[in-house]
Design brief:
Blueprint: H1 10-40, H2 46-78, H3 82-99, H4 108-140, H5 144-173, H6 180-202, H7 219-232, H8 234-264, H9 270-296, H10 298-315, H11 328-360, H12 365-393, H13 409-419, H14 421-434, H15 441-444, H16 447-450
Helix pairs in contact: 1-2, 1-4, 1-5, 1-6, 1-8, 2-4, 2-7, 2-12, 3-4, 3-6, 4-11, 4-12, 5-6, 5-9, 5-11, 7-12, 8-11, 8-12, 8-13, 8-14, 9-10, 9-11, 10-11, 10-14, 12-13
């Protein structure tokens, strides 16, 4: 068996996957409740709430390429990306708790500024972990199939995280009873500590390699390196744009789930059942997509998964005529597709990185990871923005805690469109982009890669 074909140690796969408990939790919970927290507890207008989240995410996009380049330097200088991951795991719980700790009675403007500053700090801490975390698969194995295995297990844990935080977050929030502010604080405390613990546990997988002399470069050079990676790799540009569009689609649905539960299904608790319907199939289908990818290739499997998600989203348009429990079926179909939409492109990213390394040299995985995280973050952030634009255009009425309001038919239809037709259109656009993706297995598992295959800590 060659180095290229050598299977990853089980403990390496498990340690890496645990990190998705943290990344999945952070991706899910703010996307699910933060906009709703601002519009229905703090009294912030929907369009303003969306703008605040977008500004925080734009900041995230600005810093990700710098963190990626500095992570590469840390790997060269110390032999590990671990210190970045540890710092993110330590800081994130503190700032996450502060995001949902707005003092009661604070005016909406001041409350909005509080949330913006705290959430920007939280996003920074998250990027310190996420950027090197994304870079690791390209360094853990050079095998096309082993990367699919690594990322498939990660998506199982990611799906569990979405279920845990998507269903458990609102349940924790309800512990506050009539005191909504207390409920959000309890939710943030428990979730923040769990996210941080998962990140710290996974940071151990980054302990590998031999230090070598390296210079960190200026911030300007960090951006130039990121732009250069984007310009020279056609495969990276295509994959990143496709994934960002799909992140936008899932971001719109995620941000709209609480609104669908409250105003379409007339039960705030229904959001728990929506997440169970979504994640149950995702857990079952994550290993299925790995098998399908082995049969027909990651690229074709990804198209099938995306199409499944898009068809399911379009079916949800039926809520305009007859809202009811039937929507859990297409949500489940979307969950099955979502598992492939996550695992397959994430397993293609290290293929892109290693393909670039063959012609442009090793040691730039962090740069790719930083640009990737910036693109992914942009997609998810704009998902919340698109939702709030639709809500504002359809006449959604914001409220403060304890205030009773009624939403008009146009606002209800806006919620439904953002949960169905908008994601379906975005999925179609992503598939049109993906048609230009050039890499296949023979481009990755070539003899040229064998000699450059990385050593895996703990491998026999």
């Amino acid at each position: 068996m060659t180095t290229l074909e050598q299977p990853l140690p089980t403990r390496t796969v498990a340690r890496y996957a645990i990190g998705s408990l943290g990344t999945g939790g952070f991706a899910t919970l703010p996307g699910l409740v933060l906009i709703y927290y601002m519009t229905d507890t703090l009294g912030i207008a929907a369009i303003t709430a969306g703008l605040l989240v977008t500004v925080a995410k734009v900041w995230d996009v600005v810093i990700d390429p710098v963190i990626g380049a500095r992570s590469d330097h840390s790997l060269a200088a110390t032999g590990s990306r671990r210190r970045f991951m540890v710092l993110g795991g330590l800081l994130l719980p503190l700032f996450f708790i502060l995001t949902f700790a707005v003092p009661s009675g604070m005016p909406p403007v001041a409350a909005g500024i509080w949330v913006l500053v705290a959430f920007m700090a939280t996003a920074t801490a998250f990027s310190l972990f996420q950027v090197p975390y994304i870079a690791l698969p390209a360094e853990l194995t050079a095998s096309y199939d082993q990367r699919t295995r690594l990322l498939s297990v990660r998506v199982v844990v990611l799906s569990l995280a979405i279920l845990l935080f998507g269903a458990g977050g609102p349940a924790l929030r309800s512990l506050g009873g009539d005191n909504e502010a207390l409920g959000y604080l309890v939710m943030a405390l428990v979730a923040g500590l769990l996210i941080g613990a998962a990140m710290l546990a996974t940071s151990r997988v980054a302990e590998r390699g031999i230090p070598r002399p390296a210079q960190p470069g200026s911030i300007a050079s960090n951006y130039r390196d990121g732009w250069a990676a984007l310009r020279r790799s056609h495969a990276f540009r295509v994959l990143l744009l496709c994934f960002a569009l799909q992140g936008l689609a899932t971001g719109v649905m995620l941000a709209g789930a609480q609104y669908v539960a409250t105003w379409v299904l007339h039960s705030e608790q229904a959001v728990t059942f929506l997440f169970i319907a979504l994640i149950g199939p995702a857990l079952l289908f994550a290993p299925v997509w790995r098998v399908v990818a082995g049969w027909i290739g990651k690229e074709r499997a990804f198209r099938f998964a995306s199409t499944m998600f898009g068809v399911a989203s379009l079916a949800l348009l039926g809520m305009m005529a007859a809202p009811g429990a039937w929507i859990y079926l297409p949500v489940a179909l979307a969950g099955a597709g979502y598992a492939g939409m996550q695992s397959l492109p994430m397993s293609m990213l290290p293929d892109v990185i290693s393909h670039d390394a063959r012609t442009n040299g090793e040691g730039q995985a962090g740069i790719f990871g930083g640009v990737w995280t910036a693109g992914e973050t942009t997609g998810m952030a704009l998902g919340a923005t698109v939702l709030t634009v639709v809500l504002a255009a359809s006449g959604y009425v914001q409220s403060v805690a304890g205030e009773a309001v009624t939403q008009g038919p146009a606002a209800i239809n806006g919620i439904i469109l953002s949960f169905s037709l908008v994601p379906a259109i975005l999925i179609v656009l992503s598939l049109l982009v993906f048609r230009r993706y050039p890499l296949r297995q023979h481009d990755v598992d070539s003899p040229a890669n064998d000699s450059a295959a990385p050593h895996v800590q703990g491998a026999p």
